[in-house]
């Protein structure tokens, strides 16, 4: 989703609601020039501004978030996590976006690593879970070397 298509979507919703740019800006609590820039695709609004616009347009904030590319359009479980992050009043807008980006990258990585896994979380009686790769201990780094040994060789 591009900023231009989001702006076009918001403009279409405004026209369908029979609101002028000035009326929507006033109802959403944003400036008229800022809303104009959003509609023309020059500015990317925050999740909070999108929520205010959705409320003023009397449409679902989720719809607007999907159009903005903030929420995943398909998976309800994913959407509930994303909505929880967006609804957190303690996090800043930047923190919310960073957290969503990390969450989405973890999901993408998991999908690449396990493409044919069944959707069930429970293993059947004939299925055993094994992890062939040993986990590094607190005194080992990721390559499995002892930290103390690695530190002594680095200075040489």
Automatic annotation (TrEMBL):
<feature type="region of interest" description="Disordered">
    <location>
        <begin position="111"/>
        <end position="156"/>
    </location>
</feature>
<dbReference type="Pfam" id="PF01381">
    <property type="entry name" value="HTH_3"/>
</dbReference>
<dbReference type="InterPro" id="IPR010982">
    <property type="entry name" value="Lambda_DNA-bd_dom_sf"/>
</dbReference>
<dbReference type="GO" id="GO:0003700">
    <property type="term" value="F:DNA-binding transcription factor activity"/>
</dbReference>
<dbReference type="InterPro" id="IPR001387">
    <property type="entry name" value="Cro/C1-type_HTH"/>
</dbReference>
<dbReference type="GO" id="GO:0005829">
    <property type="term" value="C:cytosol"/>
</dbReference>
<dbReference type="GO" id="GO:0003677">
    <property type="term" value="F:DNA binding"/>
</dbReference>
<protein>
    <submittedName>
        <fullName>Helix-turn-helix domain-containing protein</fullName>
    </submittedName>
</protein>
<dbReference type="InterPro" id="IPR050807">
    <property type="entry name" value="TransReg_Diox_bact_type"/>
</dbReference>
<keyword id="KW-0238">DNA-binding</keyword>
<feature type="domain" description="HTH cro/C1-type">
    <location>
        <begin position="10"/>
        <end position="64"/>
    </location>
</feature>
């Amino acid at each position: 989703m591009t900023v231009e298509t989001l702006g076009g979507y918001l403009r279409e919703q405004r026209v369908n609601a029979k609101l002028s740019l000035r009326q929507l800006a006033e109802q959403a609590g944003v400036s008229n020039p800022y809303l104009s820039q959003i509609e023309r695709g020059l500015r990317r609004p925050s999740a909070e501004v999108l929520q205010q616009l959705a409320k003023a347009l009397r449409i679902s904030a989720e719809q607007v978030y999907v159009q903005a590319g903030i929420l995943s359009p398909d998976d309800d479980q994913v959407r509930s996590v994303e909505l929880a992050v967006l609804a957190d009043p303690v996090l800043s807008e930047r923190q919310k976006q960073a957290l969503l980006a990390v969450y989405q990258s973890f999901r993408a990585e998991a999908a690449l690593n396990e493409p044919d896994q069944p959707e069930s979380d429970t293993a059947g009686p004939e299925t055993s879970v094994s992890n062939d790769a040993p986990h590094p201990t607190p005194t080992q780094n990721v390559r499995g070397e002892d930290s103390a040994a690695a530190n002594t060789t680095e200075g040489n």
